[in-house]
């Protein structure tokens, strides 16, 4: 069984929009604890693939499983989020008026597995978790600052921290370093490398320098015309004739 131990199985997925195939027999698996990079030219189907995983778009054919048993085709977006798939969109969406600490606390309160309470008090375990995530996202010492005052990069890290508060089993990141400075991009690569092995993460990104940094120990999938054109280490896909052809347009 080659699929043993995967967190996500996309098998032969096709998505048609008025006859146009945004995804065309796409097959892709993500292993537990893997940090997988997804690259590919504009229009390759990267966003559509994320939309299928999160239930925003339904596949016309093929199957999408989360773990061994959860059929994503049978669930809506909210159910999929509750099942443990967390997505971060390209633009940061933090609560600007609230402090960094409160943003992390709010993320915890929004977690549907935590019993809602009007008199929510953090347990020491929850407080400890916030401290741990503050360090990870490089915002310890800044917890009292209003999120609206953070730099673009810091807001992105905060949002990653908010996702982590909810302990998703699979994390989808859409262009996490878009608009970041070089220094912020380098720190984001460090952050993601620290998460490797502890979380299952799929990252869609155009910044090849960044992809090279986070793909050193992992796999890259190159999408083209709705399916996986090439998959392997960064070095393997970079040397793949088909990939060169697509990127150089020969
Ligand atoms: P990427 O994220 O790799 O740039 P997308 O998944 O956004 O690619 O798009 C793949 C293709 O599907 C594109 O040609 C796009 O125009 C088309 N597409 C995406 N969503 C729709 C839609 N809702 N209706 C029609 N065409 C769409």
Q: What is the makeup of the main sheet?
A: 6 strands, mixed
The distinct bound ligands, ions and cofactors come out as: adenosine-5'-diphosphate
Helix proportion range? 25-40%
Q: Widest sheet: strand order?
A: 6-7-8-3-9-10
Q: Determine the N-to-C terminus distance.
A: 38 Å
CATH homologous superfamily (4th level) name of the largest domain: P-loop containing nucleotide triphosphate hydrolases
Count of structural domains: 2
Secondary structure tally: strands: 10
The CATH level-2 architecture of the largest domain is identified as: 3-Layer(aba) Sandwich
> Count of helices?
9
The low-pLDDT segments are none
**Averaged pLDDT:** 91
Shape: globular
Secondary-structure element order, as H and E? EEEHEEHEHHHEHEHEEHH
Query: Which structural class do the helices and strands define?
Result: alpha/beta
**Residue fraction in strands:** 15-25%
């Amino acid at each position: 069984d080659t699929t043993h131990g995967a967190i996500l199985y996309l098998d032969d997925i096709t998505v048609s929009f008025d006859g146009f195939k945004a995804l065309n027999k796409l097959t892709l698996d993500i292993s537990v604890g893997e940090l997988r990079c997804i690259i590919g030219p504009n229009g390759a189907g990267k966003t559509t693939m994320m939309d299928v995983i999160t239930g925003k778009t339904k596949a016309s054919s093929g199957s999408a499983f989360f773990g061994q048993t959860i059929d994503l085709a049978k669930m809506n977006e909210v159910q999929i989020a509750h099942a443990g798939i967390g997505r971060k969109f390209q633009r940061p969406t933090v609560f600007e008026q609230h402090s960094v600490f409160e943003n992390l606390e709010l993320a915890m309160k929004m977690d549907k597995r935590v019993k809602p309470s009007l008199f929510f008090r953090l347990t020491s375990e929850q407080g400890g978790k916030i401290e741990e995530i503050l360090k990870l996202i490089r915002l310890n010492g800044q917890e009292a600052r209003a999120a609206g005052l953070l730099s673009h990069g810091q807001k992105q890290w905060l949002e990653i921290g908010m996702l982590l508060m909810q302990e998703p089993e699979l994390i989808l990141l859409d262009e996490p370093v878009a608009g970041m400075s070089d220094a912020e991009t380098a720190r984001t690569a460090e952050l993601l490398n620290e998460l490797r092995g502890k979380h299952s993460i799929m990252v869609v990104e155009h910044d090849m320098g960044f992809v090279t940094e986070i793909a050193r120990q992992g796999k890259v999938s190159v999408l083209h015309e709705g399916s996986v054109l090439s998959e392997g280490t960064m070095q393997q896909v970079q040397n793949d004739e088909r990939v060169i052809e697509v990127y150089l347009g020969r």
